[in-house]
Amino acid sequence: MKETILKRRTIRRYSPKEVSDELLDGLLEAAGRTPTMGNLQLYSVLVTRDEQMRAALSPAHFNQPMVMSAPVVVTVCADFRRTSVWAENRKAVPGYDNFLSFMNAATDALLYTQTFTCLAEEAGLGTCFLGTTIYMPQLIVDTLKLPRLVMPVATLTVGWPDEEPALSDRLPLEAFVHREIYTDYTPQSIDEYYTPKEQLEENRRFVEINHKETLAQIFTDIRYTKKDNEALSENFLKVLKAQGF
């Protein structure tokens, strides 16, 4: 498993080879052994194979081509509905329509997503994690007919790889592991951790073609702006409330 993770690549191009139900269901079931709060498994997984359904989901993911080219799209939801319905049918009164419950369910869902990703890639499949899931959640809610207390938090495209892209760069261990207490970052440590990343040819080129001075400005001024973050946050909280949390 360690070697698989160290070599993992995000796959955006897929072969037309089918992913069998037997393989997929086995991976989905095995991922259910992931850690979970109170042994409640506060997630639901929606598997989308149908081309028309994938086309309906595609706009929620900014029409990224892998949504249509991958044979399987997996949407993982924070789900307190199942637990609540169970409680109501067992003479118990659930109290899970709140933000803490959403956070617990979202944590469960993301842990499941990571476990499934590792298992799928170990089996030779390729995956792409779509961070766009939380950008336009209402469209996903409507398309997948998600009821109250169910909120989409993660999406994966899954299929057999038709490419072998280069490994993405990663920060060194010292950049994100803190021993005993949190050690705040200094200009010197930032230079140490980020200069190799900034000096990569592809990142230098990215800065150049976007007419920016630093790689950091690519993220703050173009990719993840304050304005967009605030607007998307407001929308996410609106949908979260509408879903009962």
From TrEMBL:
InterPro entries for the chain: Flavin_OxRdtase_Frp, Nitroreductase, Nitroreductase-like
Keywords: Flavoprotein, FMN, NADP, Oxidoreductase
Oxidoreductase among keywords: yes
UniProt-listed Gene3D superfamilies: NADH Oxidase
GO molecular function, one term: oxidoreductase activity
Cited Pfam families: Nitroreductase
Domain of life of the source: Bacteria
SUPFAM superfamilies referenced in this protein's UniProt entry, alphabetically: FMN-dependent nitroreductase-like (SSF55469)
Domain Nitroreductase stretches: 5-160
Similarity comment text for this entry: Belongs to the flavin oxidoreductase frp family.
Listed name of the protein: NADPH-dependent oxidoreductase
Organism ancestry: Bacteria, Pseudomonadati, Bacteroidota, Bacteroidia, Bacteroidales
